Amino acid sequence: MVNLGIVGLGPAWETRYRPALRALRSRVRVCAVYDCVPSRAAAAAKSVDADVVGGIRAMMLRPDIRGILWLGTEWQGDAPLQFAIAARKPTMIAAPNAFPIDTLARLHLSGLSTGLTLMPEFLRRYLPATHRVQELLATRIGPARVIRATLQTTEVGLATSPELTALLDWCRHIARTPPATIQATQNGHGERLVVEFRQPRIASFKPRAEIHLQAGESSETPKLIIEGDQGRIAIEETHRIRWNCDNEETVEDLSNERPAAEVLIDHFCRRVVGGLIPVADLGDLCSHLQVLEEARRSLAQGRALRINPIDAV
């Protein structure tokens, strides 16, 4: 049994995290809940049969808690992460975009120096559709050559919105190699980013992602198409894909697969108990924010720019 503490109750608590924790209750136990609104903390703690604690530091000092789910940043700044690092508590961070890149790089190095897991949410990695896409790329379609994505966002310009950062992470996750160059252009409908990745060892080409940003009601579900040598895959919903190979089209409904939040917490808990399963870290987030910084420079200069690794991460 892995004992967890919850810091902050963000907007996804009721719809995403509480159901996932309930599904994992045979292996995961929530021992304590902290939120800056006491009544909200009390209601959440009652729903998962946990204690209410009066402060973040008090939670970090509890010896029975092995990991932290930080689900809402609110007013505390990066204090919860500083406390978690000092107490050696692995932490999953649901809203990592709240901090500037230099703060994230500093926190990443602090965790890295002690081998502590500081894991940004990046939920899209754990969607049933993502797992199936990776299987198809490995068995039927071949490595991804082009990833085409269209994202509607209310943010003006190349803002570091959580949706865009998560999409960049997903593209790199599918390409399986770091970005090498970025070019940003603008038209009357929005912005277009072209990210060329480094050539992976398993391919003879450099994958690229073409991301179209359109003004509109923000959506966490972008339109996604992945093209390989042997076919293409379209993600129509988080649990539905359509793929073509050998002149045949197949539609798959993945509704019966485990929800992404459940898989995310499962992977986090495996790291908490010492497992080596790969997960994202704050260094990945810093890299994605750097790509967006270079995208803004590319747009201003009207040319593609090389992306160099951040020295700190």
Structure characterization notes:
This protein has 313 residues and is an alpha/beta fold. Helices cover 35% and strands 27% of the residues. Helix 1 packs across helix 8. The two termini are 33 Å apart. The relative contact order is 0.16.
What are the defining features of this structure?
single chain; 313 residues; alpha/beta; nine-stranded mixed beta sheet; 27% strand
Give the overall shape, derived from the CA principal axes: globular
Order of strands, widest sheet: 14-13-12-11-7-10-9-8-15
- Give the helix tally: 9
Q: List unreliable stretches of 5+ residues.
A: none
Share of helix, binned: 25-40%
Main pleated sheet: 9 strands, mixed
Q: Give the number of DSSP strands.
A: 15
Q: What fraction of residues sit in β-strands? A: 25-35%
- The helix/strand class is alpha/beta
Backbone CA Rg: 20 Å
Mean pLDDT: 91
The separation of the N and C termini measures 33 Å
H and E order: EHEHEHEHEHEHEHEEEEEEEHHE
